[in-house]
Amino acid sequence: MKSIRSRISERLPCLACLALCFPTLLYAQRDLQDIPDPDPEIERSSFIVADGFEVNLYAADPLIAKPIQMNFDAEGRLWVASSSVYPQIMPGQPADDKILILEDKDQDGTAETTSVFADGLLIPTGVIPGDGGAYVVNSTELLHLSDTDNDGKADRRKIVLSGFGTEDTHHLLHTLRWGHDGCLYMNQSIYIHSHVETPYGVKRLNGGGIWRFRPETLELDVLSYGLVNPWGHHFDAWGQSFATDGAGREGINYVFPGSVFVTAPGAERFVSGLNPGSPKHCGLEVVSGRHLPDDWQGSLLTNDFRAHRVCRFVLSEDGSGYASRQEVEPIKSTHVAFRPIDVKMGPDGAIYIADWYNPIIQHGEVDFRDSRRDHVHGRIWRVTAKNRPLVKRPNFKGASIAKLLDVLKEPEEWNRTHAKLLLKARDADDVETSLQSWTARLDPDSPLFNHHLLEALWVHQAIGRPNVRLLRGLSQSLDHRVRSAAIRVAVDWMVDGDTQYQHFMGAGIRDEHPRVRLEALRGLAKFQSLSAAEAAMLALDKPLDRFLDFALWQTMRDLEPYWLPAVQEGKVVFDGDIDKLAFALRAIDSPAVVEPLLTLIASGKVADDQVAGVLMVMANLGGAEDLGQVFALASSDARLSNEDKAELLEALVAATNSRKVIPTGDLAALRTLIKSSDPRVRAAALRAAGEWKQESLRDVVSKLALNTNVDRQERDAAIDAVTAFNGPESVKTLNQLSMLDNYDDRLRAVRSLSVIAPKLAAQRAVEVLKTLPEGSDPSLVLEVLLGRKNGPAELIAALANTELDVDVAKMTLRAVRSSSQQSPELIAAIQKAGGLSEAGWKLTPELLQELVAEVAASGDAHRGEAIFRQKELQCAKCHAIGGAGGRVGPDLISVGASAQVDYLVQSLLTPNSKLKENFHSLVIATDDGRIVTGIPIRQSDTEIVLRDAEDREITIPVNSIEEKQDGRSLMPDGSVDQLTRGELVDLVRFLSELGKVGDFAIGNAQVVRRWQTLTWTEEGNYRLNRTSYDIAATDDPALTWESAYSRVGGDLPLDGLPQVKPHRETPQTSFVRFDLEVSTPGAIRLQINSIDGLSLWVDSKPTPLQGDVKLELDRGSHRINFAIDRETREMPLRVELVGVPGSEAQAQLVSGK
Amino acid sequence: MWGELPVCHTGRIVWHRKLEAYATKVCPIMESRQPVKYHCGSSRNILTNICFGDSTVNCELCQRWILAAVLALFGPLAVARSASLDLQDGDRIVFVGGTFIERMQQYGYLETLLTVAHPDKHLTFRNLGWSGDTVWGESRALFGTQADGYARLVKDIKDAKPTVLILCYGANEAFARDGLSRFIDGLNHLLDDVSDTRARVVLLSPYGIHAGPSDVPVRNSYNGRLNRYGLAMEEVAAKRDAQFISLFDLLDTLPRPAEDADSDAVTENGMHLTEYGYQQAAFEIAKRLGVDVPKLDFAAKDKRLSQLRSTIQLKNELYFHRYRPQNETYLFLFRKHEQGNNAVEIPQFDPLVEEQEAVIAELVHALRD
């Protein structure tokens, strides 16, 4: 240790001189050990390759530099988009980026020649050969470049489309892909706003999404919206789309027309991916062909570019969608510059990987001019299966139409796609004629007969010649994959106002297979009519899974202008099925639905068991008069249970809170309701009395608030009501409450006073802090006050001349630092009150350099993990690792593989200097005096949803926003102040190992990582004492659970788990539980490391435990509980979800906080 | 009401599935159920819809026919408010609009012509075209609201310090049905909001588009609306004493290359101009602006001319990086805490632009000598 320090300090003087001349050089030197030797063989030898495969170098620098996208042409040449200007052109720097063509003429698997096809480009992020040249993305434009004089250089430049955004150069239009349908698909990322003029109008796409473009007709549409960085997109053999995300964390995403994913601007609902908790991915190829082993056919390959891995996923059908499971990586590496970003099948049936080769990958987080950014290297790797013959390259030169059609029978998607592109270039009449005889000659007994016909249908689509007869035949295929694809084609052939294709949707929506219904739903969304909406609703006659539910919801929104007017006119729609109507009305979430619903209720057409649901829609959406009607019914209607009544009252109060609507009409029934026999109704009615300012009930409410004999829940409601009444009387009552001799009441008094009397609240808060009971959290005391506009100022005043206990002051500091408003004056006031020094880490360049060196030399990742898991640090409260943990900050699953050590140190010590994409906070001041800080997760015209530092989703109506500005990192300053230097070094070492090959990479196993554990409370212990352990396997409200997380390695250490001992004779016991979501029912197995000391409950039922557990599970959520006898078991608990051979079951572990 | 439809019976019949369906259903003049198929001898066909009073004429005609009829009935469309674009010494000419304007900067023909036509006037040019843009600044909003986009449009214009402002809007706005009055309001609003630049204003009308390659169905009546938008712009220009130039017939007036007279050499796709189209359009627009158009031959291997034009192209590229830099999110917006330090580079393009402008001034003098 000492020697390293001294070595560094010896180097310091000379580095400091250098720094004076070359400030960026110092920066570059800091992590010099991470700049590897660029010899490709050194890189190759670092690869750990999947069994049965090998990797060779196809091409490398200086022949290519910085490959961004690659695609093969029909002649087997590889086209590469390459940029050295990225990330940002310098003033005076020429834009000289290139499109390169690599060729392996002797077909030995190594490219011998590289030629420059085009230069003078500005950050070309996509290239794909086609239509006699190549399509190239050139920042704002999609170009078509061609070589008319055959000298190998582009000499004709056509601007095909323009108007793509450039707000971020790693988000530029990218991922060009030819579809099975002859369309060009293109993706853009979250920060891009595009405005493209076509003869059909201006096509605008704000945010991420996948475009679908037909160059022949210039038709340009959006296939799907959202995803942060959809850097991978490919089709399976049946034309279904899948996408990966270079910043989202859900692995493979199933994409269908009109699907909306995370971050799509204005969206209220998202479709989630198939592998939650995954690292970021780049590139995607669905592999196929005779060179690869059978079990690889249809696998999805993508790249975890941060952790230097090429990943493989295997799909299986799951309802209307798919389930995806990760398999052993084709390649993993420890080489820090190995950055696989694109993956494609080649003409020989091998897999090609584009390696961007760069130790630095961050776009925004590392200075654009950081000299560690590599601008000159790049590789293409070729992965082949050992001892398997390569595919003979198809020779398309001079091929007849008939021969090209025959290629459509081949198993290689590569061959089929190129054949279709070539057919598109031929005379459409000739192709159409040949297709007829080709389909007629197909062998109906071939197992691939249907697929061949589907390819023929796609050729019709590609050449723009509809064939309704063939379409009709395929829409009745026995194979649901063909029927699904046929519907997609029918939608494409549909012409405005022409309904002949609607009957395909009509049949599809009744189909027995959920995916066909899904396609039909999204197709119906294009038919602008009431009858299309009514047909879509037939989907509700069969079970909905999550994709279908989204599709139906979205379709009802798309078709709103065609069915809502009919409802408003009082027509009977959806066959008078109230379930269907309620679904549709809920989908559009508009006040326009309230009146028709009222009419329905009044006419008695609503079935008894649906009244509550309909009233709930009205409560959520209605105006003051509507709410009055709901209240009248909720307080009197005999069809409603107490639970219904309570829920409705709660919804009405929520409407008052969020939309400031108070029910009109007679509210006298509240007096009866606050005396209801049901405690939840009483509580809801009390809150309503306050929110609606029913002064005649004030006395009753105030008395309840101060009566310590009344049940806690009811008193809390009364206290809330007193607060809502507001005014001097309320202040008086709450002040009385703050004088009571118990912490719980004083805490509540402070929180309530914070809203209506901040000055008094601050004084009382300081008094509470001075006598804070052991184990209590000051953030609860201060939370509300700190979220008020003048809260911090009042608190500073109240803290003057006050002394706080050192530990309380420290905890208070933490509370302030994680609050919405981090006032430096307040921090100083607390430090003064607690006699704390201003110590803490002061990050200087020297300290940073020293810490970076110490992390490498002496940091211990295992000790670091223990520090990460310390409760006091609260890391997991905000950060998940592999999906287990909070979602406030980025998932750290592969942070070590992507971030440099200096970046990690800076992120910990000065969090605000480093902010990840998608983790930018907003500070919103509302018209009721609140200050809310959080990460925006959804935004529509009417509301913004923020995720705050407590991982809560806060909905803010747009019309209540007074001021909105960009905020700082939600990670509090000083988070690691209490760590020793050694601990800090260990913690950074741990973070720096996350995702790298070794102990801290999350493997492919489905291990339970997110647990809940029963905490000890008096109430809970009493409950267990009076009942049995079985109660711990239920949702009993007396029990309090908190989160616990497995270590990165997958086991849950028992140390630190809370223990209970409800009876003298029972052993010390810990209770833990986890949830799983089954999407396709069937058998699954739980593999447990040891059953010693364990008892098991499955869905609250005691279940015998002998070795592994095999479970038959239905669709839906399931809960697994364990009791752990702590006196017999010390070994950590590890539970893995594994498949059962022959079972179709699909289950996912529920992740999150 | 237009008495008799001028129909040309010669030439080959043009067929389009989608158009046929439309014309059969809608055309009130042709009461027969036969599809309307006309042709006048050229292969350039436009589906045009022009409104006269309450009646709509829908037919597939070549542009020249319709215009000829319109001219005959109503007199010339292009009435310039002032005889010519009277350029002054030191004028800063700023172009604003959508794709048509945006792509001009890559080719530089019009700028070259205007520069050469006024060698002593020390003219400078700024191109603020942005694909998909409208008088409401819809393409300039980035992460903001439409109001932010509009504010950016106004700021872009003011920052460019125009003394002559050449606006070409209307083509994107005209996709909306019944959007004319909103467009005219927006145009007036924009002109009011930049009036403190005191720039002389020239309004260019949008041009009618061709059907394009392989059956691109031009939206029904789109060209008709374009024509009406142009006429309304002319009224705006008259009221504001601005110059108005109609480009409605632009695509049809541009000469085709002699060796390839029948091809659509002037557009990429029936809508956006090719480089050749921009070259020819430059002459036509300069003429309509009232400029004494120099006889330049871009096809000839005139080194000085090509050097001038390539310098103008380079200057435009540098200015593009200045006014619309990449990575704005990191340099100026909500991630500026990460790369805001590099925002200093962006104004460094200013001297580079000026440097090229000095070269342009030298070259234009050399060209005159």
Name the features.
heterodimer, A: about 1150 residues, alpha+beta, Neuraminidase, 7-stranded antiparallel β-sheet, 5-stranded antiparallel β-sheet, 37 helices, 43 strands, about 35% helix, about 20% strand, globular, disordered N terminus, B: about 375 residues, alpha/beta, Rossmann fold, 3 domains, 5-stranded parallel β-sheet, two-stranded antiparallel ribbon, 7 strands
Overview of this protein structure:
The complex is a heterodimer of chains A (about 1150) and B (about 375). By secondary structure, chain A is α+β, with helices and mostly antiparallel strands. Chain A is built from 37 helices and 43 strands. In chain A, strands 34, 35, 36, 38, 39, 41 and 43 form a seven-stranded antiparallel beta sheet that branches. Chain A has a five-stranded antiparallel beta sheet with strand order 1-24-23-22-21, with no helix packed on it. Residues about 1-30 of chain A have low confidence and may be disordered. Chain B has about 375 residues and is of the alpha/beta class. Chain B folds into three domains: about 15-75, no CATH class; about 90-290, SGNH hydrolase (Rossmann fold, 3-Layer(aba) Sandwich); about 305-370. In chain B, about 40% of the residues lie in helices and about 10% in strands. Chain B is built from 13 helices and seven strands. In chain B, strands 4-3-5-6-7 form a five-stranded parallel beta sheet. The longest helix of chain B has 21 residues, at about 305-325. Chain B is globular, with a radius of gyration of 22 Å. Mean pLDDT of chain B is about 80; it is low at about 1-80. The chains are: A alpha+beta (about 1150), B alpha/beta (about 375). Chains A and B meet through strand 10, strand 13 and strand 14 of A and helix 1, helix 3, helix 11 and helix 12 of B.
